[in-house]
């Protein structure tokens, strides 16, 4: 959720920096490992840090093809991690082996599965629809994610591991979609050993972020277009192109997500695409 809002605001700021040339600022400011991680996808990050990396796919009842990334520990208890709006499986490992929840759970003996919901950069498959040409592909929200994506992921993980239950960690939209599944498809509650809700979202009416009004107006301008805010390197190529641009971008960004310079290596991992019906605002 915060990533989608800040992207809308910063997008207008980034257009002021038309060169798109990184120069030497990025290299002079950040360690080489941070810059490298910003460009790596989930599997590449796992491989870089010497963790077993697997890619699996499942198909939902409504024919969306989803990708799960696994830090494999065969025979161990499975845990499923599901990201928030505009995010991907990389959110659980992008902060590195010392801080990433995916790495932590693996180090503590779990078989870690990281889901990617429909529409993000890793889960744009469909049995019939083309996300680039078929508007109907994007006719979904967190409701469909809870009704179809999570059950498909859960069934896929349990079938592969042979377990009857798994533990679930959700972040932001990953909690909302779980609440949908738990209430609308209660038979899946028996397949959950533990659910941990990180930054849970059930209602939106009391949000008071300073840029909320501007974000709501801007999001409504997109109407029923196809994908909103697909994955790109606009943050990396503009917000980190100079000290002045970084300061300008972060002034907005930190109002939404909080101030932490050490977490700026996430800017090439989000946003990662979502459908117009998931706007929430």
Automatic annotation (TrEMBL):
Transmembrane segments: none
An individual GO BP term: lipid catabolic process
Gene3D superfamilies: alpha/beta hydrolase
Keyword Signal in record: yes
Keywords on record: Glycoprotein, Hydrolase, Lipid degradation, Lipid metabolism, Signal
Signal peptide: 1-20
Boundaries of every AB hydrolase-1 domain copy: 77-206
Entry keyword Ribonucleoprotein: no
GO MF term (any one): hydrolase activity
One Pfam family recorded for the sequence: Abhydrolase_1
InterPro entries tied to this protein: AB_hydrolase_1 (IPR000073), AB_hydrolase_fold (IPR029058)
UniProt family annotation: Belongs to the AB hydrolase superfamily. Lipase family.
PANTHER family associated with the record: LYSOSOMAL ACID LIPASE-RELATED
Protein name (record): Lipase 1 isoform X2
